[in-house]
Structure formats: C-alpha cells, structure tokens
Amino acid sequence: EVRLAESGGGLVQPGGSLRLSCAASGFVFSKEYMQWNRQAPGKRVERVALIKPDGGTSYADSVKGRFTISRDNGKDMLYLQLDSLQTEDTAMYYCARTIGGRGQGTQVTVSA
User: Fold this and answer.
1) pLDDT of amino acid 104
2) Mind listing the pLDDT tens digit for each residue in 36-62?
3) Partner residues linked to 91 by β-bridges
4) Are strands 34-39 and 91-97 parallel, antiparallel or unpaired?
5) DSSP class per residue in 40-95
6) Burial level of 34, CB count in 10 A (0-12/13-18/19+)?
7) For residue 99, with 0-12 CB atoms within 10 Å meaning exposed, 13-18 middle and 19 or more buried, which class applies?
8) Fewest Cβ atoms closer than 10 Å to its Cβ: which of 7, 13, 36, 93?
9) What are the distances in angstroms from CA 89 to CA 62, 75, 104?
10) Rounded Cα–Cα distance for residues 92 and 36 (Å)
11) How many other CB atoms sit within 10 Å of the CB of residue 27?
C-alpha cells in the first residue's frame, strides 16, 4: 500500500521558516519523481516544487529562491524547506508522487 505522511506544518510569522517532511512507503521511492503541492481555500492546486530521482529540481515562480525541495532516498523521505514565508504561502501542503497519489497534507499558516 502506498503511503505518504506529511508533517512539520504550523503557524509562523511573515518572514519565518518551516521545514516540511514526508515519509513515503509502499513503492520504490528512489526511482520516483516527487513533488510538493499546495492548495489555499478557494484556489486551485499549485505544484510548488518537484524533484527528480537524481536530485534535479524545479520550482514555481512564486516560491523560487525561498523554498527548497530535497530528498533522502536512503530513508524514503521528502522535504520542503520554506524560508521568507509570506501570508500568501498560507495553504495546505501535500506531498505527492508525480504519477499520482498524495498524502493527507499539513497546514501552513503565515500570519502576524
């Protein structure tokens, strides 16, 4: 059974940082493209970052230079470092396999 379990969300002030983690199981993590998506209330799902099996990355323009996606293939873990957070970053963040399937999500709220 494929399982993706996110953690690390919370409430942070503008300009602050968070680190999201995703524990993967049930598939060969090291061979999969993985990504972080987010969805704010009333808005469509946005892919914020993608990482290839070899570690190559790409980012949405809205987070480029502020967010960093990484992976540990030995531990089947996916990470998203969120720096210089803005109120517009408030959303539910999901870990996902690019071919389909996501976790339950972790809430990130940026507010003074």
Assistant:
1) 95
2) 999 999 999 999 999 999 999 999 999
3) 108
4) antiparallel
5) -TTS--EEEEEE-TTS-EEE-TTTTTTEEEEEETTTTEEEEEE-S--GGG-EEEEE
6) buried
7) exposed
8) 13
9) 9, 28, 18
10) 10
11) 16
